[in-house]
Amino acid sequence: MKKLEIRVERPGYSLNRFKEVFKELSEGRDVQSEEYIAVSTIEELNRLLSPKRLQMLNYLKRHQVRSISELAKKLKRDYKNVYSDLKLFEELGIVKLEKKNGSTVPYVVYDELDIKIPLYTTP
């Protein structure tokens, strides 16, 4: 089962982590690669994984579609909005768009999204 982790991280955490990894690499140490998406706030997470976007991902995971148009019709959503959501997810690596028989066919790359929300004791 292929999982993608989506983390809510404090602003600046990713930059600090990048600095740590860069230092470790500069010192010749092995660094384990991490594949995840980071957002800054729960509100950002909610926008990224809105109910309609989650519905689309779930539908694509359970059903094969032949085109973005077919997907939009099945979901009863505007083509432009579905296309926009798919392009966002493609940029994030969650969805793959492949050309087949003159149509663009969307696929979900992952089987599961693993959401990590830390509970901070200080602001």
Provide the fold topology.
Elements: E1 3-8, H1 13-26, E2 36-39, H2 42-48, H3 51-62, H4 68-75, H5 79-91, E3 95-100, E4 103-108, E5 112-116
Parallel strand pairs: 1-2, 1-5
Antiparallel strand pairs: 3-4
Question: Would you kindly provide a written description of the structure presented here, covering whatever features stand out?
Answer:
By secondary structure, this protein is α/β, with parallel strands linked by helices. The chain has helices at residues 13-26, 42-48, 51-62, 68-75, 79-91; strands at residues 3-8, 36-39, 95-100, 103-108, 112-116. The strands form two sheets. It has a three-stranded parallel sheet. β3 (95-100) and β4 (103-108) form a beta hairpin. It starts with a strand and ends in a 7-residue tail after the last strand. The model has no long low-confidence stretch (mean pLDDT 86).
Core attributes:
two-stranded antiparallel ribbon, alpha/beta, 5 strands, 3-stranded parallel sheet, globular
Roughly how many Å is the radius of gyration? 18 Å
How many helical stretches? 5
- Spatial strand order of the main sheet: 2-1-5
Total E-strand runs: 5
Main beta-sheet annotation? 3 strands, parallel
Overall mean confidence score, pLDDT = 86
Q: Please report which band the strand proportion falls in: under 5%, 5-15%, 15-25%, 25-35%, 35-45% or over 45%.
A: 15-25%
Distance between the terminal alpha carbons, to the nearest Å? 35 Å
Low-confidence stretches: none
Looking at the structure, what is the overall shape?
A: globular
Question: What is the helical fraction, as a range of percent?
Answer: 40-55%
SSE run: EHEHHHHEEE
Query: Could you say which structural class the secondary elements and strand pairing correspond to?
Result: alpha/beta
